[in-house]
Amino acid sequence: MIIIKDKIKAFIFDLDGVITDTAKYHYLGWKRLAEEEGIDFSKEDNEELRGVSRRKSLEILLDGREVSEEEKEEMMERKNGYYQEFINEITEEDLLPGIKEIIMELRKRNFKLAVASSSRNVKPVIKNLGVGDIFDTISDGHSVNNAKPAPDIFLHTAEKLEVAPESCVVIEDAKAGIVAALRANMIAVGIGPDARVGKAHYRYDQVKDIELEEILG
Ligand code: B16
Ligand code: MG
C-alpha cells in the first residue's frame, strides 16, 4: 500500500489498550472465572485475548474443553459481571498517558475521530473516562457480526464517518486489530511490542510515543 499522506482524513482509535488500559481488568475477570472452573490461566495466556471478542476469548480460555452453549453463556455473563465491577471505578485518571493530547491535537486540525472497539462495554468506559463528546462516532461489539481480525468494524466506522478506508488511520494495540485494519486497507499504527503489532505501518511502544508528524508527513 502506498500511503498518500495528504489523503488522511480520519483517525480511528481502539479502546482497550489504546485509550485506556482495561486489558488488566479483562485479565482479572477471566482469571477469576478460570480459577472457579479449575483452568490454568496466566498473564501470558491473557495476551492471546487482546482485541478478541468475548466469545472467542472464552473459547481460547476453554482450550477445547467441551461445554454446552448454555454453560458458555453463563460463563461469559459471569466474567462480564466481574469486569463491570472494575470499569465502574474508572475515572479520567485512567486515560493512558498522551492520548488526550493526541486526540485534542487531531481535533484542532479537523480530522474526523472515531472509536472502534470489540467490546460491548464501550459506553460506560468512555463515559467514565470523560471523552464521550470528542468522537464523531463510536462503534462497538454490537455494531457488526464479525469481530476483529475481520475488517468489518473498521469498514463500518469509515462508512459512518463518510471517509474512504484508505484515508483512515487505525490506532491499535492488538494483533487481531492490526490484521483487521490492514484487511480494511487502512493505515495501521501499532502500540506495543514488535511480536504483537509489528505488521503495522508504524509502531510505537506506548501511546505517548506516537509521533503524529511521522504519520501525517
Ligand atoms: P467485552 P478493544 C476488546 O476491546 C478487548 O481488547 C478484548 O480483550 C475483549 O475481550 C473484547 O474487547 C470484548 O470485550 O467483553 O467488554 O465485550 O481492544 O477492541 O477495544
Ligand atoms: Mg485493544
Strands, helices and their partners?
Blueprint: E1 10-13, H1 23-36, H2 43-47, H3 54-62, H4 69-87, H5 99-108, E2 112-116, H6 122-129, E3 137-139, H7 152-161, E4 168-172, H8 175-183, E5 187-191, H9 194-197, E6 202-204, H10 212-216
Helix pairs in contact: 1-4
Magnesium ion (MG) binds at residues 14, 16-18, 50-51, 173-174, 177.
Structural features, described:
By secondary structure, the chain is α/β, with parallel strands linked by helices. It folds into 2 domains: 5-21 and 92-216, Rossmann fold (3-Layer(aba) Sandwich), CATH 3.40.50; 23-87, Putative phosphatase, domain 2 (DNA polymerase, domain 1, Orthogonal Bundle). Helix content is 43%, strand content 12%. It is built from 10 helices and 6 strands. The chain has a 6-stranded parallel β-sheet with strand order 3-2-1-4-5-6, sandwiched between helices. Strand 5 (187-191), helix 9 (194-197) and strand 6 form a beta-alpha-beta unit. The longest helix has 19 residues, at 69-87. 1,6-di-O-phosphono-beta-D-glucopyranose (B16) binds next to helix 3.
- The name CATH uses for the topology of the largest domain is Rossmann fold
- Average pLDDT, to the nearest integer? 95
Total strand count, please? 6
* CATH architecture call of the largest domain: 3-Layer(aba) Sandwich
The CATH H-level homologous superfamily of the largest domain: HAD superfamily/HAD-like
* Uncertain regions spanning at least 5 consecutive residues: none
Task: Note the gap between the termini.
Answer: 16 Å
Strand order of the largest sheet: 3-2-1-4-5-6
Following the backbone from N to C, one meets helices and strands in this order, namely EHHHHHEHEHEHEHEH
Specify the biggest β-sheet.
6 strands, parallel
